[in-house]
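User: Predict the full complex structure for these chains.
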Amino acid sequence: MTASLLETRGLCRNFGALAAARGIDFRLEAGARHALIGPNGAGKTTFVNLITGVIPPTSGAILMKGHDITRVDQAQRVKLGIARTFQINRLFRRLSVLENVYMAVAERVGAAPSMVRPAGLRRDVVEEAMQLLATLKLAADAGRPISELPYGRQRLVELAIALGLKPAVLLLDEPAAGVPSAESHIILDAIDGLPRDIGVLIIDHDMDLVFRFAERITVMVSGAVFATGTPREIGADASVRAVYLGQAARG
Amino acid sequence: MTPPVVGWTDHPAAVALAARHRLRAWEPIPWVLALAFYFAFPKYLGFGTELLITILFALSLDLVLGYAGIVTLGQAAFFGAGAYTVGILAKRGIWNEPITGLILAAAVAAAVGLGSGLVLLRTGGLTLLMLTLCTMALLEEAANLAHDYTGGFDGLDSLAIAPVFGVFEFNPLYPKTQYLYVLAVLLVCFAFVRTLVYSPFGQSLRGIRENTLRMHAVGAPVRRRLVLSYTLSAAIAGVAGGIWAQANAYVNLGTLGLDRAATVLIILVLGGHGRLYGAFVGAIAYMVLSHFLSKIYPTAWQLGLGLLLVVIALFASNGILGIAEAAARRLRPPRAAS
Amino acid sequence: MIFGVDVASMVLGGVAAGMVLFIVSVGLSVTMGLMGFVNLAHGGFAMLGGYAIALAMKQWGLGFGPALLFGFVVTAAGSAVLERLLYSRLYRAPELDQVLFTIGLVFMMIASVTVLVGPENQPLMLPPFLRGQINLGITQYRTYSVALIAVGILIVSGLWLVFERTRTGAQIRAAVDNRRMAESLGINIGRLFTLTFAFGSGMAALGGGLGAEFLGLDPQYALKYLVYFLIVVAVGGLGRVTGVFYAALLIGVLDFALKKYVPQGGTAFIYALTILLLLWRPQGLFGTKTT
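Assistant: Here is the predicted structure of the three-chain assembly.
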């Protein structure tokens, strides 16, 4: 059996007495469109932090294409092809949109350590960054500092940075959160337009987005996997509805 | 048939980024002024030399503090390392050629920077600040203990430095050679720092300072970059120290002291950190003020300096250049939406 | 037998010095742990308080005890005003700004004292019953050192009681561990900061006065011993009263021992030791690792 693109085995993470992740077994294949849903505090972001290496697991293993990456540090995992967006924007606020994406592309192509030639003269990096901005309809704002942009557009830049890393695995933590509904179609289109060969995991609460995008859904509750299946299976599952969808309908 | 897509490098944002490193029209002015100073004020060349060395030292701090964002109170450790390298080699008659002496000073200071950076930069915040203080204090104590080599509290004086290129002698009474020599070295070092700041490496340092967590998340080897910039900054500080020893023909424990480290921090912040020319502005402002005030009214000087720092910290943390930038932004007509 | 007495007297001296270090540094540790604020002016409060105590005794003829109380209260009140007016503006500021502010503040403190009192060492006359020697059975020892040790133990016990047994103490401990969570629990962080800051500065004043016999009292005091206070705080762990206590004793005894047996390299050794220790445990001997 060929190894999955990304796999976790028995992944556990404790914060003192709190078990934020309990024995999570998870698989993400190349080309997957996978959604992770669950009530607040279910441990979804913790899970992403574990995969990306922001926090180490208490026990369990993380594998990428069959290789154990549990001990690999965050920056190295990015080089191996794992990229993520943050739930709350983490951008270089005083730099321009172009410079933000430039940072990611420069790291990926290995231009960043160069100390001599001016950054702006690396045409290849600039071209690629601008191209990326264009696909996300951000080209007009390329020269403006992040702090001047409305939050929704900043969210797009967050996505652009992750895409600039040309990942094999893309983890999106509530990508449309905070984006006004008038603009959210840009993000949705961008997600639709993601390369088919990368594996995408989206965390979100917006059920429309989830059911439109996902080919597989995993439900997490209290740090453990509650259910996994196709959108139809999950939608039809009464226990899932009770634990999560029911709450959303009422609340 | 669709028209050919305009290359993205023509987009105004890309053009702006590509043009960022270009020499502005006013940039040669400080150097022209420095050269004019040489001819206009021959009696003040000693002061001028000290000023240029201070600018160089502040420049080294700007690289590590203004661009890499590492708050350190121990930059004098590298200044002193460079100074003592030159001093000990000259005093013992081992080596006194000035230019290669500077290279040696830079190398020794860089070694100290690399060694301490590799261990210290595993920490951050208060712990890092403390450790930079401790490292510098440790070096100062070590220099004091090794008084057979370093002259201890009295230091090493009457250093015999060979003439530059074998021709231009260092004359302690008429520091004409010193001034031009330091100016040339400053120019070279400044060109180096300027290139570095506008390179992709310098760009990544900005990123680390702006949002370190994000830099980790784009795959940047953050600690490696910080150690590298720490080491480079140490090398330049070492050059400043070495040239100080050469110009003054003297080295003592003060080169390693908290006083020197705190002063250069004040100078850089006063001028404006993270802006290449902050070192220039700050050094000139501080040294001119200090020259006139600190000897006449030392206590009032300390009080005024303290007050200045409090005001800067509360209201003007970007220094003189920061204030100038804010004023310029207000005076400039609002930019049309692009 | 003689060697044992020698060692004992050296340890006693070191412990006494450590007590002074503790009393001055405990305030710094708690405010740094609580507010995450780098207060390099803390030594200045110790100096100002010491001067207040010495001058109260000299000019007004106050007794030692009342003078100590006076110094504590005056410094605590003054620092509370400073905290409300100035310090609080910088709690969210970058570390550099905090460093600059407190350096500027300490410069102003030193200059003011130099102008108002003078640059020389300010002598502090101990009351007669604290001077001289006391008989401890095996040996004679300096009365004042013994008194200092007693006072230090009293203070650390008192502080421990406050921290472990009172609600304010619990609030402080909670806020040190996790400020945001403490805020969400309804703890008034602003008021807690002011209280802690005032108390910490008052303690520093106390330490300045009590330690004047050993450390002297001149305007440069504020900066001369700053590194030592910072070392004690960093080694002890931010916000840990017991941690600061043990670290202060350790540094005090080490310093005394080194001065006696290795007079040349003592300070260098302490710096080197601090570096190694903080590299091994950046959170200090007793601190907790921050995520």
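The interface with chain C takes residues 55 of chain A (CB under 8 Å).
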